[in-house]
Design goal:
mainly alpha; Alpha-Beta Plaits; Rhomboid-like fold; 2 domains; two-stranded antiparallel ribbon; 11 helices; 5 strands; about 10% strand; elongated
Length: about 300
């Protein structure tokens, strides 16, 4: 902080401080025997603040200072209200953290998702195309090809159920770990209903994105995109929850959601590794759609409030 001058009158000092706040110059006032000392918090704004201080001392009754000071006073009141609201939410969060750990039944949706994924994967023999049950869970059966005609006829569950089909043990294990960690946090912090609609949203949109974008392949005529209805897994939901929790830890830390830097690195490295094609046929469109949607849903309320505030 830098001192830019002293004013004898407390009202004049507050008026100047409020005026400088409208210029996004944060100040502190300190009472001394000789008057009120004005300190500027940001070193880079000191030259401008000193110029404004000099103009204010020459014409303290200039109407522009009074008008701007009223606006600055309103800004300060709003900041105080926001700070008090944040402190209240933080205190509530600390009280919740001091209580007993939430019982397992508060993660009923998380456990149900994992149980259904394991059961369906085993029932379909890891998505074996010759298994009679596999076609019931995929977004379109082999007979329908790359169409949504079965969904149009009322089999709307196909928009969701591909998330339960996994094609090998590692695929199932990785997705179950991700959903257990991320989904469990969301369910504990925000309830089962919130997790349920998030999973449904991420599942439907990531499945549709994968169905319509498909996989690239390169026949003799050049690179083309092919719709492959045989895809599945919780990866799109996992990346949706990852993006959602990532944004909530940044914009709503009082929720208590946690995401370590190591987890962020692992998820993003895996995301880009899958894009290389070296790991085989991966549902990259589902990954990308889930991640983008999770980031949007997680940060959306904060960005909307910021735009309204402006």
């Amino acid at each position: 902080m830098r001192e830019i001058g002293t004013l004898a009158d407390a009202d004049a000092a507050r008026t100047l401080a409020d005026y400088l706040l409208t210029l996004r110059i944060e100040t502190r006032l300190e009472e001394q025997p000789e008057g009120w000392v004005v300190w500027v918090c940001d070193e880079d704004r000191v030259p401008q603040a000193r110029q404004e201080f000099a103009e204010f001392t020459r014409e303290p009754r200039d109407p522009r200072f009074r008008r701007a000071a009223r606006a600055g006073h309103e800004i300060r009141l709003r900041e105080i209200e926001e700070d008090e609201d944040y402190r209240e939410r933080l205190a509530e969060f600390r009280e919740q953290m001091a209580e007993k750990p939430p019982p397992a039944n508060q993660r009923v949706v998380t456990f149900a998702l994992l149980a259904v994924a394991v059961a369906v994967t085993l029932l379909t023999n890891f998505g074996d195309p010759n298994n009679p049950y596999a076609a019931l869970f995929l977004i379109a059966s082999g007979k329908e090809g790359a169409q949504l005609s079965q969904v149009a006829r009322g089999e709307v569950w196909r928009l969701v159920t591909p998330i339960f089909v996994h094609f090998n043990a590692m695929h199932l294990l990785f997705n179950c770990i991700c959903v257990s960690v991320l989904g469990g946090q969301v369910e504990r912090a925000q309830g089962s209903a919130r997790l349920l609609w998030l999973v449904a949203l991420f599942a439907v949109l990531s499945n549709l994105a994968q169905f319509y974008l498909g996989h690239p392949y390169e026949p003799q005529g050049g690179l083309v995109w092919e719709r492959l209805p045989r895809f599945g897994g919780l990866s799109g939901v996992a990346y949706g929850l990852f993006g959602y929790v990532w944004m909530k830890t940044r914009f709503e830390p009082e929720l208590g959601l946690q995401l370590s830097p190591g987890t962020v690195i692992i998820m993003m490295v895996w995301f880009f590794a899958c894009l290389t094609g070296l790991l085989g046929a991966i549902a990259n469109a589902a990954h990308a759609a889930g991640l983008a949607l999770g980031l949007a849903v997680g940060a959306g309320p904060h960005l909307w409030e910021s735009l309204r505030g402006r």
